[in-house]
Amino acid sequence: MSKLAQFDHYLTDDGPAALVIREHLMPVEGPDGVLFPATFAAGDGFPGGYNIDPPPTRDEPWKTPNVCLIDSVGSQANRIEPLFMREKYRHLVPQIVIKAGEREVNILEAGHRAGDALLRCSSLQKELQDAFNRVLAGNAEALARVAPTSLVFGVWDSRDTQAKLPRVVGSSIRAFNVRKLTRGAVYVPPLDYSELDVFSEEDKAKAEGNNKSPLAQRGFVHNPASGAHGGVIADGGIRRDATLGLAALRQLHAGNDAEKTRILRRYIFGLSLVALTANIESYLRQGCTLVLNPDKPREFVEVYPDGRRQPCSITHDAALRFATEAATEFGVGQSRTVPFEKDRAKRDVKVEDDSKAKSKRGGKKA
User: Fold this and answer.
1) Residues 127 and 116 placed together within one structural domain of the fold
2) Beta pairing partners, 26
3) Distance between CA atoms of 34 and 234, rounded to whole angstroms?
4) Residue 141 burial (CB < 10 Å; 0-12/13-18/19+)?
């Protein structure tokens, strides 16, 4: 069997449904350390703050089993995808860079990937539009030439063709049975500015303790803060779940050409396998640096449609070797730097504004 064919059993319809990695994590301070989850804005009945399900109760909240989202699927994708900008991996994908003034942004850093406004407002617009239209026609080969990680982490061309591809690799981090903490702080100014006649004693008295006061916001008076988010303690542990969806990968086609489809799938599988097995960054945000829990072994398994789970022993080095060969076979697309085009952006904004105005007029008639 050739090296390129060694993983072909994952690409056939009777292969496993997915490869799954489960890693047990803990704060660098230890299993009982405090960690700070992601915070989310209020909306749809959610009050904002930490995403804990079910929300803690007022009475003995520590007795309520719950799950706290530490890092979402989207956030994890945004952490993993830039891996392909590093020297060790950059040969696997085209390095497409948009230059706007003095700023350069790699497509691997664009939140919506090939569907991002940044790319739509460059000379890549027509090329990507054609590639997305081919996706709708059942051929993802052209998109893989310019933005292959869009096939790995998913993409939706929501502002144009509406072409949508699911994530092949998804990862998230959750904590279980958490105790929510609060914290307080106070800012003490180095001087009494009222004594220097910057403002009056009366203004000072009104501003102290009122964090909405301009004097407090600008740091001229005492400003206590109480009841702020203070992190959580995860009594039930922290776990990262990462999945390579082989069933989703097998939905990719290069038209009706079976050989080209196999080569395309090998390429995207190689990239996906590299992303799945890579060591993720330990630092997620201030107060949330996570490492592996040495007392709980990592699980890496093949999961079959009938529920069978078999150990998988593919290492990251083996994944990288395969991905390199698969990329060579497929032919990595051209790397290039293209300018951001302000006129395209203005036209794009105008189209959006016109669309909203038309929708509004239609709503009034209705």
Assistant:
1) yes
2) 291
3) 8
4) buried
b/e code 264-300 from CB counts within 10 Å (16+ = b): bbbbbbbbbbbbbbbebeeebeeebbbeebeeeeeeb
Inter-residue contact 38 to 114 (CB < 8 Å): no
Run of H or E residues at 309: strand 309-311
User: With contact defined as beta carbons under 8 Å apart, do 51 and 247 qualify?
Assistant: no
pLDDT band at 356; cut points 50, 70, 90: low
Residue 245 has phi, psi (to 5 degrees) of: -80, 95
Least confident among 51-55, 92-96, 258-262: 51-55
pLDDT at 206: 87
One domain, residues 137 and 36 = yes
The number of CA neighbours under 13 Å toward the Cβ of 150 is 29
Q: How many domains, the chain?
A: 2
Residue 366's pLDDT is 46
Nearest Cα to Cα of residue 222 among 210, 235, 237, 240:
210
Backbone angles phi, psi at 145, to 5 degrees: -75, -30
204-227 pLDDT tens trace: 888 887 878 898 889 898 888 777
Measured in whole angstroms, the distance separating CA 10 from the mean position of its chain's CA atoms is 25
Domain that holds residue 341: 3-48+81-175+239-351
Average predicted confidence (pLDDT) for the chain: 90
Phi then psi for residue 11, to 5 deg, are -100, 0
Within-domain flag for 60: no
Whole-structure pTM over 0.70, yes or no?
A: yes
- Please check whether residues 171 and 191 belong to one and the same domain: no
DSSP H or E segment with residue 321: helix 316-330
HSE at residue 38, side-chain half, CA atoms within 13 A, is 16
Please say which residue of 208, 231, 254 terminates a domain: 231
Q: Is residue 64 one of the residues assigned to a domain?
A: no
Is 171 inside a domain boundary?
yes
- Do residue 247 and residue 210 come from a single domain? no
